[in-house]
Structures are given as C-alpha cells and as structure tokens.
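Retry 2 of 3 after timeout on previous attempt. Resubmitting structure tokens to design endpoint.
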C-alpha cells in the first residue's frame, strides 16, 4: 500500500512539474520597440517562425567589442529599436563576411525605419527589408 501511494505521489509531482513547465513557454519574439515604433514585425503564414522587418545598418565589423561605444550612443538615441547581431541572423543583408556583426536599427515599416534613422543621425551603409533568422 505504501508503494502504491509513493508511486501515485511521484506521478502527481511529475504531472505538476510538467504543467508548470508548459505554463512558462517562451513568448514569441515581439518587435515591440516601445516608444520608437509601438508595432510588431510581419509574419506571413508561409513563413511561420520568421519575422520580416526593415533594418538600417550603420556598421559591420568582425569584432563585436568594437561596437560597444557606438552601441551605447545609438541606444540612447533610439531606445529599444537597436540591433547588434551576427550578420547571418538576417537573410537579405549584402554583407559578405558571415562572421561579422551589425549595428543598426530595426522597425516593422519603412516609415518607422526612416524616423529611427533620423533619430540616430547616422549614415546607413544599408537600408532594406530582411528576414530575421535568429529569434531571442
């Protein structure tokens, strides 16, 4: 009888742990940039799990540490719309070095991107629509 009760208690505990884990599934990546854009990226039904967004790249370097000063400056200007990521996280960037890192801003629309570029007050080396391949 004790063994049956112990097995039952173990099964209940495992079920509770499993249900708790399901309740904490990671949220889908949102492109809510707070005051910078207030909107989300575009996901088409044929691209489930892929986010399409507009990006303006200001720098691309092999050593991400070289972006630190610019990152801090840009973050102050554009709030949460900043992106510092490996170039291979974006399909559609014309940057030849797959090991490079990009510093830029992202937005769900071209109009919002233009506004961010104005806020950044920097010259972009690339502006266009890309697909995000790396989701946080």
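Retry 2 succeeded. Sequence:
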């Amino acid at each position: 009888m004790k063994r049956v009760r112990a097995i039952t208690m173990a099964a209940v505990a495992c079920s509770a742990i499993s249900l708790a884990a399901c309740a904490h599934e990671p949220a889908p990546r949102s492109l809510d940039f707070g005051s910078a854009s207030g909107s989300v990226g575009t996901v088409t039904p044929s691209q489930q799990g892929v986010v399409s967004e507009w990006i303006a790249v200001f720098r691309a370097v092999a050593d991400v540490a070289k972006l630190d000063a610019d990152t801090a400056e840009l973050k102050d200007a554009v709030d949460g719309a900043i992106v510092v990521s490996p170039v291979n996280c974006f399909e559609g960037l014309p940057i030849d070095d797959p090991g490079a890192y990009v510093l830029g801003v992202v937005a769900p629309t071209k109009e919002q991107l233009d506004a961010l570029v104005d806020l950044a007050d920097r010259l972009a080396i690339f502006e266009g629509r890309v697909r995000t391949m790396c989701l946080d």
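Attempt log closed. Confidence is low (pLDDT under 50) at residues 1-48.
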